[in-house]
């Protein structure tokens, strides 16, 4: 019976090992699936739709081959097509399950009828409109891209793109894009039972060998009847080797114990060898996986309004944009170059820098403005909008606890993001914002759904700065927690006291505030309120009241530098630009408008005329 079980074990072992080896060889499916993309026309750009990347499950690997530098970038499909709307390109899509490449031609630009129309055209069409040859769009470092890559001759990138994200492949925007393109995906083909089958077969083979040896032993012990010999004393067994030695015969045959141990050692060698061989050929995908499903962590439910667009930027994208802005502004600060600053600044943020550069060029005592911080980004609220212009709000907090709040805007698909507003965040400022992956809609300047429409906040707050609690708008603002109002009131009182001690008899010092010219930027909060950024121009006017009096600027080098005058018989006006961030609650709310951040910089000065 032992031989029967040994044969059964050998047969099962052979079947299992054979099945395991077959799974790893002849029955093994391909590990990857590939798709060649045929491009038969030379164009500067190739756009591969997200649907092409998702024709197979799993991660995607793009391979592009050509001569020279190969550029690749991916972003939201709507942003990509908007950016490419002025250029010829090949759009690779999926049609009825087949990957097809379609050439998209740029519209022929209309001849502009005036200078303003020419200014509105993107850079790629400017030369063409002027009668010259278009230089092409450079895809490098566009703020629209979620990520970009550059390699020489061959570009290979592992990706994980969703359906609504597309890949742009180009050279430099002018030369033809590489046409040798292919995509590969892992098929996920594994052989999870190959390892158990081969190892199990090895175990059965070892078991069969053991059963076979046990069968041999049993046969030897049961060889039929033997003759009876003389009775032997139970305590004195006969040792045949001794007897033979006494007779002068030396036996060369080993004892039974030696024979048995030798056979066992000989039998274990092939078992160990086969097991080691099988185990060495089994990789991780030859074994079943029993990964436990992670328990999802509950999170707050955010209901996205129907029809709301995609967030303008992601967190990674915003960090990259802020880093570029910070570097560009730092270079402009060092060179005192207002044109360089205008590449990444606009509105009140640029105006403050321009004035500072003018003062620093002539005054050694004038300090530079604070640099634009880039990291760490602690708060991001992008506008949820698919068109242009679009904006986002960011808060960057330094290690010392000082936090800067900024509003950046992008005019069109070809423009860089520029800082419009920047201010220091007040201590304890609280904002109920949507997560960055949801974003927020922009609030119309004349929206009636807030305590005050955004386009009235600046003028109303200017009136509060001048009149305090006597202002008709004071009821809308939280004056008790307003650090900027307290600072302005204290500053005005100190300056007025100093003036009265020196020039009260010959002149007057008055203060006034007015809404700035820059349009407000507003983004909605989760409690139906809005974050509103505005400017207020705060003016100091010194006027002479005595015909024989002359107002000198001995103690005002900044005003002297900006006006180019040292004295005036009439007077001087100095304007400071205040950049302010407010939380404006909903009209139905019992809360009041709160100041979240502020900064104040000298803007201009002029000599008054009679």
UniProtKB/TrEMBL annotation:
Keyword annotations from UniProtKB, A to Z: Lipoprotein, Membrane, Transmembrane, Transmembrane helix
Region span, Disordered: 107-135
Tagged with keyword Membrane: yes
Family matches, as Pfam families: DUF8094 (PF26366)
Low complexity composition-biased segments: 119-135
InterPro entries per the UniProt record, alphabetical: DUF8094
Limits of the DUF8094 domain: 310-606
Protein's recorded name: Major membrane immunogen (Membrane-anchored lipoprotein)
């Amino acid at each position: 019976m032992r031989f029967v079980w040994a044969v059964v074990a050998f047969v099962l072992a052979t079947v299992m090992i054979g099945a395991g080896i077959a799974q790893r060889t002849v029955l093994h499916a391909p590990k990857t699936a590939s798709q060649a993309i045929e491009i038969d026309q030379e164009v500067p750009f190739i756009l591969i739709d997200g649907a092409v990347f998702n024709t197979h499950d799993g991660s995607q690997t793009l391979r592009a081959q050509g001569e020279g530098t190969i550029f690749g970038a991916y972003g939201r499909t709507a942003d990509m097509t908007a950016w490419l709307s002025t250029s010829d390109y090949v759009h690779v899509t999926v049609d009825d399950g087949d990957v097809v490449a379609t050439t998209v031609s740029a519209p022929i630009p209309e001849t502009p009828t005036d200078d303003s129309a020419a200014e509105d055209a993107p850079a790629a069409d400017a030369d063409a409109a002027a009668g010259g040859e278009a230089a092409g769009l450079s895809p490098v470092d566009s703020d629209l891209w979620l990520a970009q890559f550059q390699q020489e001759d061959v570009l290979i990138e592992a990706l994980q793109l969703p359906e609504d994200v597309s890949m742009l492949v180009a050279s430099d925007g002018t030369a033809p894009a590489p046409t040798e393109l292919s995509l590969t995906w892992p098929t996920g083909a594994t052989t999870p039972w190959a390892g158990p089958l081969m190892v199990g077969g090895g175990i059965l083979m070892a078991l069969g060998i053991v059963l076979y040896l046990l069968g041999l032993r049993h046969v030897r012990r049961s060889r039929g009847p033997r003759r009876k010999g003389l009775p032997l004393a139970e305590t004195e067994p006969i040792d045949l080797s001794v007897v033979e030695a006494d007779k002068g015969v030396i036996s060369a045959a080993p004892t039974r114990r030696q024979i048995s141990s030798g056979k066992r050692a000989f039998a274990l060698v092939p078992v160990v060898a086969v097991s080691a061989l099988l185990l060495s050929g089994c990789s991780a995908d030859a074994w079943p996986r029993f990964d436990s499903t992670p328990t999802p962590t509950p999170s707050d439910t955010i209901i996205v309004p129907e029809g709301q667009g995609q967030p303008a930027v992601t967190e990674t994208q915003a960090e990259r944009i802020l880093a570029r802005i910070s570097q560009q502004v730092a270079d402009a600060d060092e060179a005192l170059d207002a044109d360089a600053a205008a590449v990444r600044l606009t509105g009140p943020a640029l105006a403050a820098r321009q004035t500072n550069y003018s003062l620093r060029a002539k005054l050694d005592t004038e300090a530079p403005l604070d640099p634009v911080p880039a990291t760490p980004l602690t708060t991001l609220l992008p506008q949820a909008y698919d068109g242009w212009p679009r904006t986002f709000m960011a808060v960057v907090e330094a290690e010392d606890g000082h936090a800067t709040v900024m509003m950046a805007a992008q005019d069109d698909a070809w423009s860089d993001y520029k800082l419009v507003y920047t201010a220091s965040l007040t201590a304890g400022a609280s904002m109920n914002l949507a997560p960055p992956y949801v974003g927020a809609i922009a609030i119309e300047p004349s929206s009636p759904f807030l305590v005050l429409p955004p386009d009235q906040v600046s003028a109303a707050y200017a009136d509060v700065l001048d009149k305090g609690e006597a202002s008709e708008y004071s009821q809308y603002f939280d004056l008790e927690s307003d650090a900027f109002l307290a600072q302005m009131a204290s500053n005005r009182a100190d300056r007025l006291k100093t003036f009265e001690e020196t020039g009260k008899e010959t002149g007057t010092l008055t203060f006034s505030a007015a809404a700035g010219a820059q349009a407000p930027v507003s983004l909605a909060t989760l409690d139906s309120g809005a974050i509103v950024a505005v400017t207020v121009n705060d003016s100091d006017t010194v006027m002479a009241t005595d015909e024989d009096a002359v107002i000198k600027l001995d103690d005002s080098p900044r005003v002297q530098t900006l006006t180019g005058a040292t004295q005036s018989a009439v007077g001087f006006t100095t304007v400071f630009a205040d950049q302010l961030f407010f939380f404006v609650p909903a009209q139905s709310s019992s809360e009041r408008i709160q100041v979240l951040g502020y900064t104040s910089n000298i803007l201009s000065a002029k000599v008054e005329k009679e």
